Amino acid sequence: MTPSPTATLANPAEAAARNDKPLLEHIKHNFREYGMLITLVAIMGFFQYMTDGTLMQPLNLTNLLLQNSYIVIMALGMLLVIVAGHIDLSVGSVCGFIGALAAVLMVEYHWHFLPASLVCLLCGGIIGGLQGWFVAFSRIPSFIVTLAGMLVFKGLALALLAGQSVGPFPAEFQLLSSGFIPDLFSVEGLKLTSLLLGVAVAVALAVAGVRARANRVRHGVQAEPLAFFVARTAVFAALLVYFAYLLASYKGLPNVLVVMALLIVLFDFVTSRTTIGRRIYAMGGNEKAAKLSGIKTERLSFYAFINMGVLAALAGLVFAARLNTATPKAGLGFELDVIAACFIGGASASGGVGKVMGAVIGAFVMGVMNNGMSILGIGIDYQQVIKGVVLLAAVLVDVYNKNKA
Amino acid sequence: MDVSTGHPLAPVLELTGIHKHFSGIPVLRDVQLNLYPGEIHALMGQNGAGKSTLIKVLTGVLEASGGQMRLAGQAVWPDSPLAAQRLGISTVYQEVNLCPNLSVAENIFAGRYPRCGIAQGFRIDWATLHQRARDLVARIGLSIDVTRLLSDYPVAVQQLVAIARALSIEAKVLILDEPTSSLDDDEVQKLFEVLRRLRGEGLAIVFVTHFLNQVYAVSDRITVLRNGAWVGEWAVGDLGPQALIAAMLGRELAAQCTEPPVIPVFDDAAPALLEAQGLGQSGQLQPIDLKVRAGEVVGLAGLLGSGRTELARLLFGLQAPDKGVLRIDGRTVTFSNPMDAIRAGLALCPEERKTDGIVAELSVRENIALALQARMGMGRFLSRAEQTAIAERYVKLLGIKTSSVDTPIALLSGGNQQKAILARWMAIEPRLLILDEPTRGIDVAAKQEIMEQILCLAEAGMAVVFISSEMSEVVRVAHRIVVLRDRRKVGELPAGSSEEAVYELIAAENA
Fold first, then answer.
1. Which domain holds residue B416?
2. Is the pTM of this model over 0.80?
3. C or N: which end of chain B has fewer Cβ atoms within 10 Å?
4. Could you say which of B111, B122, B130 has the minimum Cβ distance to residue A219?
């Protein structure tokens, strides 16, 4: 990596030169960040055109969100695990196992859905904790521990269900995936509450953005150029409102979208604002340095796996509720989509690098491709080939940019 | 007044009778160290003398097997790096131990972010964090954007950031373990200014280095260790360089080292083995002429970043030149990868022993046989017996200290690792051997042996390109010295030139 021109002592002439073309400079510097978002928009545009507008129809958009919710939820946990310098191959199996557990508790033992769900989440945490224990304290590479976990929980799911599909779930439980937020106003053909909620979120995000920028400027920290900031915020807000409008013109915002959005906000906050989040990045960047700084790295790895377990359990519940039945095959291959989402979103396989929004965008890139290709009638065979190639291409572009920078 | 030592102040840190053994083998025996506020204290010793172990004990990374540690008169035992930091003992380790993926400010406060918000403040107070980082960076005379990624800055700045980080805990004792090994002269001077400023603020600084001149440039007192034992403590004025070397090596060895080796007279008429004409790569190296004859040692002298390593990489096919020609025995060649260069009879012993040289997990035997095996290709195997024979020959020839050739190389000391790497390239019997900083970070005795070996190789007809930032070494072994500065050649000097002549040439066009 070449040393930056701003190194060592400040050089006013250089600083001035750098500010000559702030807009171009800024885009160049942050290409990795916006690159993914632009790619997602481009892919959506492509499929929107190829499917004659089917992709963005309210019904399909709703389906797309529901189909991808569990991948996004797990990608949040996986991002932390990857940033910490590990990997978790067991999430698909854990997802299936928790679905099976939920089915047994609710369908066979007739538990109320609330305690059953809580037990499932707790169980996910314990599974994550067990695996995390071996990784963090026994120092067994996570690849091996979670490969073992993948086999174990796939087998246990099969055993729990005795090879059968178990269902259906109670109606209240199904609402987790198939429900929509209640509509308080009655407007013909439009769920006004959902639309208003979308507008509110867009406004809140814009206000937060303005405040963050003002803060940066006040502290003399290099901020993005004003024109760029305004344009970016406006486009982003407009897109949000548009999507909210599309969803509102069908059944409104799905419950699971709300859950997902809250989790995204929470994890974005944790990774960028809190001590524990930043410590995970420090550990992933240079574990020895983190340790010498007094960070208890083992414990952090342990927590990252517990978190992953809980999120995998939540994803398992969402998936089971969506299918309305638990099958031994549930969760098969999810880990690949989840891991791919993180890497497409710019996470580094060697740890320390990756953003929550990146992983979310990565998950949607995969999701939109799945959905779009299905609408186009491309077989599952070539879908996999194309997804594999896209994963490789995304990481290739990322690596190329990093080497060039 | 401290009566026992005659120092006007009470010591801030006293270590007495420190013992440490690893599985029964003693590595520290009855070691002591006294640190006073407002001093720079050099901790000296060869590799394996126990400096690193002592520092690890001091900073809570290792637990001592016996002894006492007093901080401002109070008995203390830090049992973790964090505990040591809380006591005010702060360390900058040998390799830059920071996170390149985080911002400068985050690196400075990693593990101790200022917090705000509810629940004991799990949120990071970014405004305070950045403000305090800016103050600290200013305190050591740096002016950088603390919100940018650490990896955006060169190594020298990263090293200073590591010091800023060490200061951020309101340290009373600052330990610097070889902080200058990756810095060039200017940067070292800047670092020393910072150290002097901190000394003025009353900090006690422990300074570990292999560069003797730096000890005399900046430190006040010296403690010397040898073979895990304490040799003595001196004020810097009471211990001249000769005496310091004697203390570090023991008497007999020291006498050998100070005697310069005799450089054999070189036959100037011999044809060039390797000749570079206008060889260069834009952005890396200005076009350069270089001639190396069989049996000749050509020294490449220059500061860090002067283009020495870049030239070595161009010669060895690690980088493709975009200007000029390279001839071997008068025939023009182009190397597209190291294998081509090895086939043409070249060998490169790279600069970074740890990352580019040794394969830590493999045995000494496998490390030595690595290049020979690679040259023979995939199809032909070097039998284990042959490997052992070769390895044992070089272990004996170079005096590599190892319990057996099947010992993992990581267990050897730095000097012995370096000798094994040298053996790797000697084993393929190259016609031209390029040595990039073969003496960095190894002890004085090993340096001496390596230099003698280089002269032996040259006598046997091998051509050697010797790269070093220690001018004293270059002038001692080289038959001809090529001086580089700012990525271009600034001149050539004959054998027997003084160090000063080299420095003058480097500095000449600077004025």
1. 360-429
2. no
3. C
4. B130
